[in-house]
Design a protein that fits this description.
9 strands, disordered N terminus, disordered C terminus, Jelly Rolls, 233 residues
């Protein structure tokens, strides 16, 4: 009887892992995200609003795949404000290793050395970033950003979840995600006027990578096999 209950407990834990896995980290996105970056606009165009309508029409500086959490912060005032400082999260965590499939006329190292923005909103260099992917779940979401940020979901990104498109200091902007499975989203972020440059997202439930699901399934099959052997013992 004890052996029987132990085996059932093992299976219950395994079932719990399957249920909980997609929402294990609400502040992370495990499925590949497509990041498109425009840089250098603003010398003639003084509109830096972070929304779909303001997306630059010129050639992007870079396009790449990103698989880590959306947790970026360069809060060093007066820093050179490069993409390396942004993706290094102020040097505490290096997310540059999460970049793959890099597409640009320059190398990845050249991109990371590029300045995101310079002081002065009416001149210099600015960055517009579009991050697209999918989420599963719904409910409260928050984006801490410096400067503007907007989040859209659904086909054609027709649903506005949150919108704070104008340059600002680092502030949280809340929103509510519609419930869905593998629902597309587009997170727009604009960096202007020099450091700080922050983009921290919480509440987007991750869609696990296929490899992670395969590994999880293989492990659970092993657990189930152990449980069956114990039941026969």
């Amino acid at each position: 009887m004890v052996k029987h209950l132990s085996s059932l407990a093992i299976l219950a834990v395994a079932a719990g892992i399957i249920t909980a896995a997609p929402a294990a980290r609400a502040d992370a996105i495990y499925s590949p995200l497509t990041v498109t970056v425009w840089n250098g606009f603003g010398t003639t165009d003084t509109s830096y609003t972070a929304d779909l309508a303001s997306m630059p029409t010129g050639t992007p500086l870079a396009t790449f795949t990103y698989t880590g959490p959306l947790d970026f912060a360069n809060n060093v005032f007066g820093s050179t404000n490069t993409f390396l400082q942004f993706f290094n999260s102020q040097g505490s965590t290096n997310y540059t290793s999460d970049i793959s499939n890099f597409s640009s006329s320059d190398t990845l190292s050249s991109f990371l050395g590029t300045v995101m923005s310079t002081p002065g909103e009416s001149k210099g260099i600015n960055t517009y970033m579009s991050i697209t992917g999918s989420y599963t779940g719904g409910g409260s979401v928050s984006v801490v950003h410096d400067d503007g940020a907007s989040l859209y979901t659904g086909m054609g990104y027709s649903n506005t979840v949150l919108s704070s498109p104008n340059p600002t200091s680092a502030i949280p902007t809340p929103g509510t995600l519609p419930t869905g499975t593998n629902t597309p989203f587009d997170l727009i972020y604009v960096e202007s006027n020099g450091a700080p440059s922050d983009l921290v997202v919480t509440g987007l439930s991750p869609v696990p990578e296929p490899d992670s699901l395969l590994l999880l399934g293989t492990g659970l099959l092993g657990v189930a096999g152990i449980a069956r052997r114990k039941l026969r013992a």
